[in-house]
Amino acid sequence: MTKGGPSSTPVAPGGTIGILGGGQLGRMLALAAARLGLKAHIYSDESDAPAFQVCAKHTLARYDDEKALDAFSASCDVVTFEFENVPAATVEILARRKPIFPSARALAIAQDRFDEKSFVQSLGLKTTAFAAISSDGEGEAAIAKIGMPAILKTRRLGYDGKGQVRISDAAAARAAFRNFKSAPSILEGFVDFAFEASVIAARGRDGRFAAYDPPENLHRDHILRRSSVPSRLSAAQCAQAKAGAESITNALDYVGVLAVELFVCKDGALLVNEIAPRVHNSGHWTLEACVISQFEQHIRAVAGWPLGDGSRHSDAVMENLIGEEAADWQALAAKGGALHLYGKSEIRAGRKMGHITQIKPMTRT
Ligand code: AMP
Question: What is the pLDDT, as a whole number, of residue 159?
Fold first, then answer.
């Protein structure tokens, strides 16, 4: 349990939550904080960060700007983040000054795909087979271990399918590795899954755990298209998925919301694909279908408040609006459902511009 020190003092209304990162997740966190009478101070290195539009304070500076980080931390009661690629040095600087949740350790594990999968396996949870490749010479051994087809991914800094490629022979693996400029990588067995799902879970500073109903997720070109609840997971699989997330959060002494992405195999097995130490795109439907959304749950956890009731009162389907799909906002506004537009200054291919959630009366849990 997380006890003692300044981190045990809850942040009272009027206090400030510092958030590293200014994308749509930071934006929705800031809105949730505001609802609880808390202020959000967003730190981003992008002048047009969508979260700047909705927060009480913002800092536009590089993540290695010590002076700016100092001033930022002085204005915050606690610090959190909305993306997992926050540089470790930034977290170290801030952690010396203010409580930071989730911890630097949770962030470090989630930043490296090899460490992450090794950690997950150490808890007795299953993943697909994987092997590290850090030099050209290691490719053959990795292929012999994993087999084909496989997916080569950079260990660090990949998201939405960036830094990953499906390969079917050794020559393709070599070419892909060179294309990654020999960045340390992992080769993963390709999973012929039945479908994908995720668990959005939360752990409070007092060690209490809560998890939302696991959504079923559909990806195209490695980018999330749709999340829906209820999923095709059985009650036993839901319980197993939540128990896995609980063991991950306990092992990390985690504080905040965490997502565990799962492959659901045709034989019913659940494999952990990755951990996101933050609120997650597959949890956006909680804004409309639950009393307390993932964003409020995260703010509550890092602020040291009791976790809220995350139970679901409706079925929900959340569709992402990617690139040009967000252009015709009038048609989207007329479509029904809850429309969220993230206030991004420019439409780009593959860019998450917003989402729409449709809810209907609950059929089953
Ligand atoms: P990731 O960046 O690891 O979350 O991967 C993004 C998406 O690519 C996943 O949600 C899957 O749809 C697909 N994917 C990633 N790794 C694998 C794998 N080993 N086998 C099959 N599909 C994968």
Answer: 60
Q: Residue 290 has what DSSP assignment?
A: B
How many angstroms separate the alpha carbon of residue 11 from the centre of ligand 1? 38
pLDDT for 178 equals 81
Query: What contacts 221, CB < 8 A, 6 or more positions away?
Result: 161, 350
d(CA 95, CA 203): 19
> Quick check: CB of 261 below 6 Å from ligand 1?
yes
Answer whether 82 contacts ligand 1 (Cβ < 6 A): no
Would you state the structure tokens that stand for residue 323, as one six-digit string? 């690139």
- Cα 20 to Cα 59, 61, 102, 321, 325: the distances in Å are 10, 11, 12, 24, 28
**What proportion of the chain, given as a percentage, has pLDDT over 70?**
96
pTM of the predicted protein model: 0.95
Residue 356 Cα to ligand 1 midpoint, Å, equals: 23
Question: Would the CB of 274 count as within 6 Å of ligand 1?
Answer: yes
